[in-house]
Amino acid sequence: MHAVTLDRFDTGTPHPARRYNYWLGGKDNFAADRESGDVLARAYPAARIAARANRAFLGRAVGYLAGDAGLRQFLDIGTGLPTADNTHEVAQRIAPDSRIVYVDNDPMVMVHARALLTSTAEGETRYLEQDLRQPKSILESLDILDLSRPVGLMLVAVIHFLPSQEEARSIVSTLVDALPSGSHLTMSCATTDFLTPDLRANWDESLRSGRSDVHPRTRAEFSEFFTGLEFVSPGAVAVSEWRPDPGAEERPGPVEASIFGAVARKP
Fold first, then answer.
1. pLDDT, position 45
2. In this structure, is the dihedral angle defined by the CA atoms of residues 161, 26, 193 and 254, taken in order, positive or negative?
């Protein structure tokens, strides 16, 4: 692992991980991230609620994978800044011997991950500063994962930063194809399918003007990522509707949590 110095941080350009941190109430963000977050929140007022709903979906999905599905290996790409109930924390509470590889392209994420994310003695965590757009490079760096055994591939709130559906599908296919039978793909992606016409128009205008970098997918487009896989019930739904916790304090509707989420098994 190499040291990361402050001069590697581009503090003047907003980054999705730091903006997400801002929406979740964190402190690891800069003025550009906060400004970007506020602009997007004006176009989509429920942005902060959606961020929390997406994070809760991640926890429930990992809980299912480590519990019911029995997975002990996870590849989490687009990790974001550490917060409560990270992938390894949820997985290792259920199975202490779980191994997790985190991947993100923001050096600040890696600094915090290496400082704050510790593993159980039985398991292991690893952090890679790499880019989702280079899936083969990521796959070549997974030395703590055994790719002959099932892996939980986590692509949570990251694919929608890729404008091209064709490129995004190619990346996901490359990653899934490298994993064995019994592996699972967990994904969430922004959508405007649930929004009112006015909210959808606001979102579209934010994209056209360059104020937004979040490219939503329709249900059909989102489902394309799971071609050849077997959906885990309830399939592709709003993240707040994927196996919701009946005791949760906050359970937003699809309009507020306009993010598709799904888990699927590779046969």
1. 62
2. positive
Given pLDDT bands bounded at 50, 70 and 90, which one contains residue 191?
Answer: very high
- Domain contains 206: no
Structural domains of the chain, count: 1
DSSP letter at 194 equals: T
- Judge whether 104 lies within some domain: yes
* CA nearest to 87, candidates 69, 60, 106: 60
Q: What angle do CA 214, 117, 101 make, to 5 degrees?
A: 65
Asked whether residue 242 is domain-assigned, the answer is yes
**Do the domain assignments include residue 163?**
yes
**In whole angstroms, what is the distance from residue 51 CA to residue 214 CA?**
13
Structural tokens at position 237: 């739904």
Would you say residue 3 has pLDDT above 50? Answer: no
Lowest-confidence segment of 26-30, 122-126, 133-137 by average pLDDT: 26-30
Q: Residues 18, 29: contact at Cβ < 8 Å?
A: yes
Read off the tokens for 260: 């598709």
Q: Which phi and psi (to 5°) does residue 121 adopt?
A: -65, -35
238: domain range? 57-195+214-265
Convert the pLDDT of each residue in 89-118 to its tens digit. 999 999 999 999 999 887 777 777 766 667
Write out pLDDT tens, residues 40-67.
Answer: 767 666 777 888 899 999 999 999 999 9
Contacts with 171 (C-beta within 8 Å, 6 or more apart), sequence order:
132, 133, 135, 159, 162
Q: Is the pLDDT of residue 173 over 80?
A: yes
Q: What CATH number has the domain bearing residue 61?
A: 3.40.50.150
